Amino acid sequence: DTGVSQNPRHKITKRGQNVTFRCDPISEHNRLYWYRQTLGQGPEFLTYFQNEAQLEKSRLLSDRFSAERPKGSFSTLEIQRTEQGDSAMYLCASSFAGENSPLHFGNGTRLTVT
Amino acid sequence: GQQVMQIPQYQHVQEGEDFTTYCNSSTTLSNIQWYKQRPGGHPVFLIQLVKSGEVKKQKRLTFQFGEAKKNSSLHITATQTTDVGTYFCAGHGSSNTGKLIFGQGTTLQVKP
Could you give the count of Cα atoms lying within 13 Å of B9 in the half-sphere of its Cβ? Predict the structure, then answer.
């Protein structure tokens, strides 16, 4: 068990560019979550998958955000036409299915949009 | 939609003093989880409470779940500098969703 792995650790991009982040969950976990965190705030739910199915997506998430988990293992989060307001830490977490399973977070990808 | 609120946002204590953070949900929770995030780190799971009125202890930390399952608290006795960090509560609004909603956290600073 190597934990949840996220790449890259840091990403600096210019406004209007597209970015993609990758998350490799703990291999035994069938749920995978994406959260966004800004300074002084708690993790904000974006979306989650159970195996390859995307079960829920935040209504706050604009059409510029899309996430995939094609084979039920790793996941990617893409942000199209980035805006300065997208600057944040993007956290991935994984867990077993079931509401009583704790989330295991990765170290996150810090996005800076200039 | 469901909201989870925490107070206070910040707390500065002298080492050895006690600390409490409170968590309130706008809806009844099926369970409540607590996480700790050290400066520069990621949230790490501490504990989960499921039953109404449940109390759990981890060394100097005491966690409570309210009778109505809408509020919770974390109390640290005799804080140490290793307790520094941000403490988050998080809850599932209902039993048929995996969506976990986090509070905004309470950041604890401990003066040695």
Answer: 5
Among A41, A48, A91, beta carbon nearest to B98: A48
Phi/psi at A86 (5° precision): -80, -10
Per-residue pLDDT of chain B (112 residues; tens, 9 = 90+): 778 999 999 999 999 999 999 999 999 998 999 999 999 999 999 999 999 999 999 999 999 999 999 999 999 999 999 999 999 999 986 656 788 999 999 999 999 9
Which chain B residue shows the shortest CA-CA distance from A56? Answer: B99
Handedness of CA A90, B109, B106, A40 (dihedral sign): negative
Cβ contact B43–A103 (<8 Å): yes
Q: How far apart are CA B106 and CA A46, in angstroms?
A: 22
**Complete DSSP assignment for A40-98:** TSPPEEEEEEETTEEEEE-TT--TTEEEE-TTSS-EEEEE-S--GGG-EEEEEEEE-SS
Q: Tell me which of A99, A103, A105, A110 to substitute to probe the interface with B (most B C-beta atoms closer than 10 Å).
A: A99
| Collapsed DSSP state (helix, strand, coil) of residue B87 | strand
